[in-house]
Amino acid sequence: MAAIPVPFSDITKPANDLLTRDFYHTSAANLEVKSKAPNGVNFNVKGKSAHDGPISGSLEGKYSDKANGLTLTQTWTTSNSLDTKVELEDNIAKGLKAELLSNYLPNSKAYGGKLNLFFKQPNFHTRAFVDVFKGPTATVDAVVGHEGFLAGAEAGYDVQSAAIKKWSLAFGYSDAKYSAAVTATNSLSVFSASYFHNVSQQVQAGAKATWDKNAGSNVGLEVAGKYALDPASFVKGKINDRGIAALAYNVKMSQNATVGLGLSIDTQNLSQAAHKVGASFTFES
Q1: Measuring CA to CA, which residue among 255, 201, 245 is closest to residue 223?
Q2: SS3 state of residue 67
Q3: 68-112 tens-digit pLDDT
Q4: Is 14 helix (H, G, I), strand (E, B) or coil?
Q5: Cβ distance 1 to 117 under 8 Å?
């Protein structure tokens, strides 16, 4: 049977994940606590201490009724935002998922609402994101795939002005060992090429080059690698064309606890206070 292709935003996911995920220097400290109640409700408490700025956090509760394809998620953040998401999957039609999102700010009495639709079939995957109260605006994307090859397009439409506000294109190839992608985003003004290679069970490598035609002639380049020390720990490293290097270490201390440590160094300004250190702690029960 033909495979279902990834959504448009995931055509570059393997390389993007290697370059961005599990680097802990971006904030001074992160704490995440996950638990599951006897009735099946999942709770997730997050807290983040930024290098500059206040501590932020959120409390999330999630209930899933898999038999009926229903998921309800409610979140309350430290910025006093009440967010609700209702998901219906394979309920209306096979391969169709609908999401209804609402956002309410009690202090300002402001509210927002979005409707997202996802439809996937063999060799085809399409999505629509509609912001009901802003515009309204709609972003629609679609991907077709065949034997590992992917081609996708995205367009943003403003209902009030009856105009297409943005468009993007992406092409890629992916298999178990490696993936490559070329994208043209922001109305075909930002171009990027990325590559990801699963070298072995222990080693992963990847790179991404980006050129913004509105920002100048320079091409941004970033390379990264990951090495699994053992089944419970790994190290990662990356460096970009500006000389910013980042290192990370992740270890699963037990079945319920994971610790991550990160360091960012400005190799062009070693004597200045431009370096960052961060830590992440995740607990599950």
Answers
A1: 245
A2: helix
A3: 899 999 999 999 999 999 999 998 889 999 999 999 999 888 999
A4: helix
A5: no
